[in-house]
Amino acid sequence: MVAGALCGVRFRQERVRAATGICPPITLCDKGRPVTRIDYQTWRVPAMNSRSLTITYKVFGNDLSGTFSQLDPRHANFNGGSVFMYIVNHKSDPVKLVLNPPSAWRIINGRMEQTDQREWKFPNWDRSTRPRRLLPTGAEKSFKCRARNTT
User: For position 89, which CATH number holds?
Assistant: First the structure.
């Protein structure tokens, strides 16, 4: 990122307009930077000579179709491509993903290295978009398949 440049945050473009379930980021992000909406899927934030940026936004996770992301008292299922932001022209950069579910919930996905894992590093945005499932503790079931434990 060039110091002082504007960085846009864009969601994956799809015909289903996945970004329509995204509430706009708060109008001022960390350090009082203004957040300006450019179009239905792009927001611009001035870099202000900083090497990092934190943006807080909300996702409407119940589009009733069940095809992308859901959130209800029983579970959360996130399709990263319809939820996680990226910096325009920087999708190929390394990504750090941090998920903070309610304290009584756990995260399940194919990249789990430990049961209480909350943080992952990926070589790029596309690799970070694999679905993530969050469940209340005790909601998952275990079984054995060919002598291997499966949760």
Answer: 2.60.40.3650
